[in-house]
Amino acid sequence: MFGKTIKRVVQVGVALSFSVSAYAQQEVKIGVIYPLTGAAASSGAEMKNALELAADIINNGAKGIPDLPFSAGGGLPNLKGAKIKLIFADHQGNPQVGATEAERLITQEKVIALVGAYQSNVTATASQVAERNKVPFLNPESSSATLTQRNFKWFFRTTAHDDLFVQNFFDFFKDMEAKKGIQVKQLGAFNENTLWGNETTKLETKLAQEKGYNLVKTITYPAKSTQLTSEVQALKAGGPQVVMQSSYLGDAILAMKTYKELGFSPDMILANNAGFTDTEFIRTLGKDADYVITREVWSLDLAKKNPLIKQVNDLFNSRYKANFTGNSSRTFTGLMTLADAINRAGSTDTEAVRKALTETNIPGSKLIMPWKGIKFDATGQNVYGSGILVQIIDGKYNTVWPFDLATRDVTWPMPKWDQRK
Fold first, then answer.
1. What is the mean pLDDT of the chain?
2. Is 178 exposed, middle or buried (0-12, 13-18, 19+ CB in 10 A)?
3. β-pairing, 137-139 with 155-157?
4. Structure confidence by residue, pLDDT tens digits, 85-143
5. Under a CB-based contact definition with an 8 Å cutoff, are residues 119 and 196 in contact?
6. Could you read off the pLDDT of 159-196 as tens digits, one per residue?
7. Residues 99/74, Cβ–Cβ less than 8 Å
8. Which domains does the chain have, with CATH numbers?
9. Beta strands 388-393 and 373-374, pairing class
């Protein structure tokens, strides 16, 4: 009799355990850390929208887009239809806040993975917390090269990094001379002074020396500056033909206004993405944003060669009344990549998800990015990430390099401020 009682208790315990497990599988909690307030709040809002669209597609489907993974909806099929639940955290552009929020999401919210964090200096601290807690960290946008040079086991980056992006600048100069007969020799560097901007400056200095360009002026300014007059005056005095610039949104807008105010008109401003590709950049500056060339990873005009770009952008635009940017398109792709790994793992066990990420091999035909695909090397870097250059003309981004992908010829040089209509 006593033995039967014990057996029955065990059976009830097993049933209860199964019930809790089945319930837990209804949601897959993913923590996302972005700047939702502060100087980069506009960028953060766009990326939050992209994440919500990706989660909605996974959970509820996207009719008429059969080539997009998870477009059938119904959640993650290998987890019995478990739905993605995003838990947002605001790092405010502060690395310490980013680390604290990562800790909270892992220990209190019990997320199984993290996505973030746009600004490289915040990604650096937040991903350290994830590494220590053995939780996968998927980074869609941060481009500081050192992020994948830390021998981390739990960090994965889908975008290409600044080693490649800065190299693209110099490849572009070489192609301009060879194919357009335009010589560039005098360069200036104008970059914000956090991890991203400082690393970019080092790369630009190194490559300029190696490739025989004269870097006539190098200026790093305090991030989130309220005035840049003295810095722009010093830059102007150096007389660069081309200014290579790394700025987040507020600084990018302020710099352009100061250039106009001081009549600084180099042949070209060659921007390193970030603030120059935020929707608010063109919205705020209007025609004064025209002619800038910026490195990019995505452009709507590439839909002519990849219909998936327009199909998914139409979903985004219908919901948020804005097009994807290089930032938001990468964020969307990052969550879709993480979901792919979780689904292949067939589990919410963090080690199983990490292992699945190491085995990722998504073909370019399944992406809205102009990449060959997504496959991570031993450092967690996507080996297939690549960059393009776009130029703003009449308030729109146009692909101008590589020339075989270009949808419009480069306008060079930029018209002087007093010669613009």
1. 91
2. exposed
3. parallel
4. 999 999 999 999 999 999 999 999 999 999 999 999 999 999 999 999 999 999 999 98
5. yes
6. 999 888 889 999 999 999 999 999 999 999 999 998 88
7. no
8. 8-160+304-374 (3.40.50.2300), 163-296+388-419 (3.40.50.2300)
9. unpaired
Question: Distance between CA atoms of 358 and 196, rounded to whole angstroms?
Answer: 26
Burial of 168 (0-12, 13-18, 19+ CB in 10 A): buried
Q: Look at strands 27-34 and 83-90 and give their pairing.
A: parallel
Instruction: Report, as an integer, the average pLDDT of 227-239.
Output: 95
Per the structure block, which two tokens stand in for 173? 């100069």
Q: What is the largest CA-CA distance in the chain?
A: 98
Distance of CA 21 to the CA centre of its chain: 34
Q: Is the pLDDT of residue 351 over 60?
A: yes
Among residues 370, 219, 171, 191, which one has the least CA distance to residue 275? 191
Is-contact 69 340, C-beta < 8 A? yes
**What is the pTM (predicted TM-score) of this model?**
0.84
More confident of the two residues 71 and 11: 71
284-314: pLDDT as tens digits: 999 999 999 999 999 999 998 899 999 999 9
The neighbour count for residue 195, using CB atoms within 10 Å, is 20
